[in-house]
Amino acid sequence: MLSHLLTSLIDDIHGDTITLKELLERSGRQGMLLICALATLPFLIPVSIPGVSTVFGAAIVLLAAALFLNRLPWLPQRILNKPLDAKKLVPVLRKGVGVVSKIDRWVQPRWLGLTSGTLLRLNCAAVVFGGVLLMAPLGPIPFSNTAPAVGILLLTVGLLQRDGLFVILGYLGLVLSVVYFSVLGYLAWTGGTYLFG
């Protein structure tokens, strides 16, 4: 179960700080997708940790791009070695695992064609897109990180557990994120026009 994999990964975090490089080294065979799933957890609950959105969003983009290209990931040393405050991060990750554990009971291998072949690359491209949305500088706006994080999480859960239904739900989450961002953009534009027009 994904929640157990994530819990064991979090249990290995010791010390005052943790880097993305250390997380990758500990994540094993399916590490890239697992790290993508782990990177969404801080955004599932309303707690802000400075710097996490940029680091984890960039990591998701680069790891999913590597999966899309079917090659080993390349990550800049600046992202790999940026220290994150483990004392703040670990409790948030544990709360995120609580959300994932509720999802676990519904996951099962089904609609396998949606998680393999050509569609696998399309799914990885969708995760890249979700990571770009996650990196958008809209942190103070409610749900601006949560919406794409949920889409990415559902996609990665679907790919890790070979559940095509969760892949579709992940796409739905990303579509709703785009709609939400579009509404925010429209409101900002009309508000600016009203104030300065």
From TrEMBL:
Pfam families: ExoD (PF06055). Keywords: Membrane, Transmembrane, Transmembrane helix. InterPro entries: ExoD. The chain crosses the membrane at residues 55-72, 111-135, 141-160, 167-189. The keyword Transmembrane applies. This is Exopolysaccharide biosynthesis protein.
